[in-house]
Amino acid sequence: MKIALVYPYFLDPRLDSGEIAVPPIGIYYVGALLRANGHAVEIFNWYDQAGRQEDLARDLAAWGAQVVGFSVLHANRWGALEIAAEVRRILPEAAVVFGGIGASMLWRHLLAHFPQVDAVVVGEGERTFLALVQALARDGRLPSGLPGLALRRGGEPIFNGPADPIRRLDDLPDPARYFTFQHLVMTRGCPGRCTFCGSPRFWGRRVRFHSVPYIAEQIQRLYDRGQRYFFFSDDTFTLSRTRVMALCREILDRGLDITWQAISKVNIVDAETLGWMRRAGCIQISYGVESGSEEIRALLCKDIHREQVRRAFALTVRAGILARAYFIYGSPGESAETIQATLDLMEEIQPLGAIFYILDIFPGTALYEDFKRRTGHTDDIWLDRREDIPYFETDPALDAQQILAFGRSLRQGYYRRLSAYARNVPLNDDPALRVLHADFLSRLALTFHQGDYARNEEVENPEATAETLYRRALTLAPDARAYLGLGQLLQRRRDTAASIEVLEAGLIHFPRDGAIGLCLAISWMNSGHFHRALDLLKPLEDDPRGRHFADICREALKEA
Ligand code: B12
Ligand code: SF4
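Above: inputs. Below: predicted complex with cobalamin.
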C-alpha cells in the first residue's frame, strides 16, 4: 500500500523554528517497519506549511496515498486536524490515522469530535500501525479489535486496550536503512515520575534498550551518508553506564568522527562515563534542574537533590562537556523567594547553557489529571485552538504578570552572569583530554563570538569572553577554531600585527586550513603586503572569496 506519514505544522508561530523543524524519530521507525514489509512510504515534513492544508491534501492525492498517518506531538494537532479535513474531502477513500504521544493521550477526544480521524494508534506505533495497514490491504477496512488501536464502533470511540510493548527493540528494522536523520534513541521508557512529563505514562517506567551494535550500526549508516552531528533523544541517556561506555568504545573503535549531545538526569552520571562520552564526541548534556526550590522540585516529583545537581554539573563541565540546564518557572507556590532560590542554584552550578520553560500542562501528565480534578475541566478544553495550558492560568494563587516577570528575571539573571561562568569554567587536568578541552573552549568561545550569545543583548561583553576562551584554548593545545577566531577578533579590532602572529602560528599547526589562510591573507592585505597575501590566496582560488581577494591583490600590485 502507499502510506504517507505526515509531520504537521504547529498552531503558534515560533521565534526559533529549529525546535519544531525536525520530525519525531518515531515516524522513521514506523516508516521503516512498513517499508521492510513491502509498503511504499513517504514522509512529509510539513512543520512550516501552516495555512496550506488544501494544497497539502492535493499533494497527498497526487502522490496516491491510500493511508495518511499523522505524527501528533500535541501542539501540532490542529495542523493535523486541518490537513486531515482536507484529505477527507479531496481523497475520501484514504484512511486517516493519528499516532504519537499527543494523539495517544487524547484518542477519545479526537474520535469524538473530529470525523476526519478514522483511528488513533495509542502508544508505541510500529506494530499496531503495520497490522492496521495489513488489515486494510487484506479486507479493505480498518480492523476492529486490534490492540493498541482506538476507533469508532457504532459511532462511539472505543479503545481496544494497549498492545504489548515490543520486547526486543532490535527486532525493529533500522530506520537508517531507509531514511536519513540526526535524532537517535537507544532507550524507551523512563523510571522517573515527574508530574509535568508525559513520558512515563506513554512509555512506562520500565526501560527497554536497543543493543549497542544496533545503535552503532545505525550511526555508521548515517555517517556513511555524511551525517556528523547527532542528538540522542533518550529521556535519560546514561541510565545504563555499561551500555553507554560500550557504545562510546564502539564509536571510537570504528573511527567515527562525530559530535553529539544527549539528555540525562543529574543523579545518574559519573566521571568515568562522562570521560568516555567526551572522547566519543559528546559535547553537550542537558539536565532537568527545573527549580532551585527544594519544595517545588518535590512537588514536581523531580526526585533530585541539590547536591546531585551540583555534582553532575561539576563533573560534566570538568570532563569538557557543556552542561545545559532546563529550568521551569510558574510552578505551584512560585514566589520571589523560590525564583531567588533558582538564581542561587544557578550561581552554584554555573550552567553554560540554559533553557527556561514556563510550566505547561500537557495531557498524559499527572499535572493534567490534577488540573481536571481541580477545575472540573474535561478534554473538551482542547476544542479551543490552543497549544497548551500554562499552569499559572489554572492557579488563583499565581499572578500572570508576576510569573512572566519571574521568567524575565531568570533569563536576565542568567545572561548577565553567563560571561563570568564561561570565563571561570573549571576543566579537569587529565592530559589525555587537553586537545578535547581546547576544542570545548574554542567551541564555547565561538558562541560568544559569532553564535547565539554574541547576538543576545543581555550577555555582557561577549567579545571579550570569546577572546579569553580562545586564548585559554590555545594554552592547552593547538586548535584551529581558536587560532581562526582569535585572528578574526584581532583583525576586526585592527590589531593587524597581533592577528598575523596568531594566524601564522595557526597555519604552522594547520597548514591546509583554508579559513586560517584566507584570514591571514586579509591581515596581510590590511598591512599592505599584497605579495604575501597573494601567495596565500593562490591555492584558495577555487573558493569565490579566495578568488575575490586574489583579484584585489593583483589589482593592487598592478597599480603599485
Ligand atoms: C527528544 C524530544 C524532543 C526534541 C525533539 C526531537 C525530535 N524531533 O525527535 C526537542 C528538544 C526538539 C523537543 C522539543 C519539545 N518537546 Co519534546 N520530547 C522529546 C522526547 C524526550 C523524546 C522523543 C523521542 O524521540 N521518543 C522516542 C521515539 C521512538 O518515539 P516517538 O517519536 O514518540 O514515536 C513513537 C510513538 O509516538 C508513535 N508515533 C509517532 N508518530 C507516529 C505517527 C503515526 C502515524 C503512528 C501510527 C505512530 C506514531 O510511534 C513511534 C514509535 O513507537 C520526548 C519524551 C519521550 N521519551 O517520548 C519529549 C516530549 C515528546 N516533548 C514534549 C514537549 C512538551 C516538547 C516541547 C513542546 C517542549 C516545549 N515546552 O517547548 C517541545 C516542542 C517541540 C515539538 N517538536 O513539539 C512532551 C510532549 C507532551 C505532549 N503530551 O505532547 C514530551 C512527551 C516530554 C514531556 N515533557 O512530557 N522534544
Ligand atoms: S522529565 Fe525526564 S526524568 Fe522526569 S519523567 Fe520525564 S523523562 Fe523522566
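The first strand starts at residue 2 and ends at 7.
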